[in-house]
Specification:
Blueprint (H helix, E strand, L loop, with lengths): L1 H25 L2 H27 L3 E6 L5 H10 L13 E5 L14 E5 L10 H4 L3 E9 L3 H16 L2 H4 L5 E6 L9 H20 L28 E5 L8 H10 L3
Parallel strand pairs: 1-3, 1-4, 4-5, 5-6
Antiparallel strand pairs: 2-3
Helix pairs in contact: 5-7
Family: Belongs to the SRP receptor beta subunit family.
Keywords: Endoplasmic reticulum, GTP-binding, Membrane, Nucleotide-binding, Receptor, Transmembrane, Transmembrane helix
Subcellular location: Endoplasmic reticulum membrane
Length: 261
């Protein structure tokens, strides 16, 4: 009985195939090719959209020297408070969340994955784990203690701006001058100019040994001209913030410009 059913099914399928072949043969070639082209174009478009969605990042990396106030900023973004910001961690502090200022829009916005990378020099290699996925980098500078830290901050920033993972993808960088609520804080304009001068010195000395320098694949600036952030391969923006008081509107704006809802 089973063999009979199988045989009947084979006959039925053969009839369907014959009917399908006759139907296709009756279609004018132009219409057939057009239909096939439409199907293929649709499949390719869907594939491109899917790949684009996969590569769209929602990761924002907070980095900078130790003591610049990165962790204060992390908790202000997440909780609207700096209550846990005094803890210095030796491991990256990260989380995915809706920005505290946007909690009334929860469910309508895309969560942001924020990574607070420790600023200690021995832990900076951890930065390389997150940069390839970064939608934006926030380099935090202590506006109060800027002058004694200008050289090490410039060296660290130089490393970031010349990394292949940043240059190739043109990852935007926000140079965030923190602690501006303090009376002794330097202005963002002053900090920008001093960093540009220091990086100009760095690129001159490093260009001289570029053949031996395997850590950086790209150089900064325009040969023969003083360095300026506007010459970078990627966009570099200068802004101000206060992690202690919660004045982080410019930081939030940068995040939402690069992590779309």
């Amino acid at each position: 009985m089973d063999k009979v059913k199988v045989e009947q099914l084979k006959i039925q399928m053969q009839q369907w195939l014959n009917e399908a072949e006759e139907f296709i043969n009756d279609i004018p070639p132009v219409q057939l090719y057009t239909a096939v082209g439409v199907v293929l174009s649709t499949l390719i478009l869907l594939l491109i959209i899917r790949l684009f969605k996969r590569t769209t990042s929602n990761t924002i990396v907070l980095t900078g020297l130790s003591g610049s106030g990165k962790t204060y900023l992390f908790y202000q973004l997440r909780d609207g408070s700096a209550h846990q910001g005094t803890v210095t961690s030796m491991e990256p502090n990260e989380g995915s969340f809706i920005l505290h200022s946007e909690e009334d829009k929860k469910g309508k916005l895309k969560p942001v994955h924020v990574v607070d990378v420790p600023g200690h020099s021995r832990l900076r290699p951890k930065l390389d784990e997150f940069l390839p996925q970064a939608a934006g980098v926030v380099f935090v500078v202590d506006s109060v203690e800027f002058l004694p830290n200008c050289r090490p901050a410039s060296e660290y920033l130089y490393e970031i701006l010349t990394k292949a993972s940043v240059v190739k993808k043109k990852v935007p960088v926000l140079l965030l001058c923190n602690k501006v609520d303090k009376v002794t804080a330097h202005t963002a304009e002053f900090i920008r100019k001093q960093l540009e001068k220091e990086i100009d010195k760095l690129r001159t000395s490093r260009t001289a040994v570029s053949d031996a320098d395997i850590s950086n694949e790209y150089t900064l600036g325009v040969p023969g001209e003083p360095f300026a952030f506007s010459q970078c391969h990627n966009r570099v923006i200068v802004a101000e913030a206060s992690g202690l008081t919660g004045e982080i509107s410019q930081l939030e704006k940068f995040i939402r410009e690069n992590v779309k809802p």
